[in-house]
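Ticket #502: bound-state structure for ME8.
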Amino acid sequence: MAKFYLTTPLYYVNSKLHVGHTYTTLFSDAVIRYKKAMGFDTFFLTGSDEHGQKIFEAAREKNITPQQLADENVSYFKELWKLLNVKYDKFIRTTDEYHEKRVRDVLQKLYNKGDIYKGKYEAYHCIPCESFWNEKQLTDGKCPTCGGEVKWEEQENYFFKISKYKDIIREKLKSDPNLIRPRIRYNEIMGKLDDSMDDKSISRSHFDWGVRLPFDDSQVCYVWFDAILNYITAIGYSDDMEMFNRYWPADIHVIGKDILWFHTLFWFSILEALDIPLPTVYAHGYWLLKGGKMSKRSGVVVDPFELVDKYGIDPLRFFLLSELSEGSDTEFSEERLVGKFNTELVNIVSNTLHRTLTMVEKYLDGSLDYIIENTDMEDKLIAEYEKRREEYIRNFDNFKLPQAIDAVMDFLRYINGYINDAAPFKSGKDDKNRTAAILYTVLEAVRNVSLMLYPIIPDTANKILERLNCKNKIDLKKDLEWGRLDKKSIYKKDEPIFMRLK
Ligand code: ME8
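RESOLUTION: The complex was predicted; output attached.
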């Protein structure tokens, strides 16, 4: 069985999460559900980033220990993922003992190899981003990522020899551009490669909230070096190699474009130094609010708990996953969320099902057990279905979720046109065979649609499948074949799945 290993970033525990973080995790959940339903041996990793100066200072401000702050926010992260129906396999915390031990093993290995050495560190530090820059890299004296203030720091530190791996990484990226997706992000990294692969300081001595270096216990490991290793420590590196070999390399590290450099040039260099194959990185764009990036730092954020309270889980999942196209940034808007919900989920998904089940009950007493003969109209609909299914699979395989959803919605619009043209409300009770043929076709189409929407809106898909008497474990390869709806079942009309939102 082919495997599929997916990771999200480990979110910082300095504060609560907003719609941006929620999006990354929902995107990951949808991809993993899709892959699992396609028959892959999947592993979905998420977690929390708990060390470093930023967490240390956030805890100090609240008069609690960093560990208390981390515990508080980890409970909150898990509550959010549970609420949103996110089904991860493992939640790693960078304060987990096994992780810290494995980080120390890696540090020792690289130190022994000569890839970590002592030197003098001088750089501009952006605390909120936990990033370090030289003079040239600053934008008008400010952090090039978030535009915030930076602080000059000098100390004796340990450095990691990124520069040693520049040429090999350039070659690998040239021969496999799909290691960084989408292409716009690949180009961005290729453009930065020459200027941003100087050796990097990977330890700190002025605070102690971190993993102690095994070869110098007066210093702790830099938070990014510790955190990025989670992707291999979580699956066993380097003392449970059976699990590690089963899943590595990651098939997709899902991240936002703000942390692309860390996940490519920095991470790839560490992996090269450890002689581990490179993973694939997928970086999406930003959710904007009032024109700027939604961020903890600006305080301009939308709370996912509030959104679920107001609109429900699946409407939020559907909106977020269908709106942010790869390579672009998108303004968040509740008005658009409501509009999308009403025009797509209510008018098309919910109404098509409700209208059809009502007719099956009214004209055929809930049974489709008639002599069903297809005409040209049905043959054309099935051909349309096959085209849209292929489009859906191709787009999902390429992580183009909005396009995959569009393929399904276009097919649903086609089904609605078919209902109007085939007019089961005219053949009604007089020609039961013909009415059954039309209504069977529609319900079979809706069955396939709900399967395709399952990774995006799992609860809704399951509700529809239940009404169509076919709620089993989902196996998309088998279930997406035309004609699997049971003719012998009795179909009952029910309340609509969704009602319009104001
Ligand atoms: O960077 N739009 O954690 P973090 C879209 N701990 N996505 C957004 C977003 C927005 N406006 N704002 C945040 C860290 N995100 C590190 C990661 S991994 C080893 C360490 C998402 O809590 C996006 O995925 O700052 C981004 O990369 C991530 O949250 C940053 O989360």
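RESOLUTION NOTES: The longest strand covers residues 116-126.
TICKET STATUS: resolved
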